[in-house]
Design brief:
This protein has 272 residues and is of the alpha/beta class. Helix content is 38%, strand content 19%. The strands form two sheets. The chain has a seven-stranded mixed sheet with strand order 1-2-3-4-5-6-7, with helices on both faces. The protein has a three-stranded antiparallel sheet with strand order 8-9-10. The chain starts with 5 loop residues before the first helix and ends with a helix.
């Protein structure tokens, strides 16, 4: 793969597993390199999107947002700019430095269905070197793969090849992307979430197993699919902030207020 993970860089496991609902749902956090710190092309792309943290316009926008939360937050933001400048200006990073600077983390959810099989929501890379593949196999056979967002297709090809009999659910935009790289064994998704008839058909099967899928009609940016699994909502690319007004991503308001230096990149993204 073109994007290295923690194992590639340090030899350590890239996975953190949290059981969300005992015996039913597991959240897996997968740590990869942040390409905007290691790739010149990625830095240029970020700059084109107005997301270069060393740019004065970017910083001014972040300062205004940080100031709304207090002078202490603004002070932290200014320190984060210095951290960003340090890492962005480094020509090369060692494997350890890549993760010292801060990883890019993806989350996948493993759902055990009522019949004992598994549904993978937004699957990540499955590495056997650290026992992740064996752990997954110990939970049950993978029968379903949900392409939760058309932006998150990096690991779908590998998942489809590893589980060739698994039914894949997603949007036409993601299907087109994967076919461009010959990433689908059957050349098409088994169910397109944008088709009401097909969505009804797949839900008629999955609801008996404890899962119902909802396509966000009108979401032309991500084509997101929400899964209600055993009464727990699972989403991708839809909800970034918390109801308390300060928490975001996986950080609660309390965690945010600790101003952990390692979260500098997350904070700047939140301010932007």
């Amino acid at each position: 793969p073109t994007t290295r993970d923690r194992y590639d860089c340090t030899g350590k496991t890239p996975y953190t597993i949290e059981e969300i609902k005992p015996g039913k749902i597991w959240q897996v956090t997968y740590d990869m390199e942040d390409k905007t710190l290691t790739s010149k092309a990625a830095k240029e792309e970020a700059k084109a999107f107005g997301m270069d943290p060393t740019d004065e316009k970017y910083q001014e926008k972040c300062r205004k947002a940080a100031a709304l939360l207090g002078e202490d937050v603004l002070e932290v933001a200014n320190k984060d700019f210095e951290t960003a400048k340090y890492w962005y200006n480094k020509e090369t990073l060692t494997g350890e430095e890549i993760f010292e600077a801060g990883p890019s983390s993806l989350k996948t959810f493993v759902v055990k269905l009522n019949n004992g099989s598994l549904l993978l929501y937004a699957p990540v890379r499955i590495r056997d070197e650290v026992g992740f593949g064996d752990w997954l196999a110990s939970l049950g056979p993978v029968e379903w793969i949900v392409v939760a967002s058309s932006y998150h297709t990096l690991n779908i090809k590998a998942a489809a090849e590893r589980f060739p009999d698994a039914k894949i659910i997603g949007a036409p935009a993601a299907e087109d992307k994967l076919n461009f790289i010959n990433g689908l064994i059957r050349k098409k998704f088994d169910y397109r979430c944008t088709d009401k008839t097909e969505l009804l058909a797949v839900n008629s099967i999955l609801e008996k197993e404890g899962v119902k899928l909802h396509y966000v009609v009108g979401d032309v940016a991500c084509n997101a699919i929400i899964a209600i699994a055993h009464n727990i909502a699972i989403e991708c690319d839809l909800v970034y902030g918390h109801h308390d007004g300060e928490g975001f991503f996986h950080l609660s308001k309390e965690e945010f207020r600790k101003f952990d230096p390692k979260h500098w990149g997350l904070r700047l993204f939140r301010f932007l």
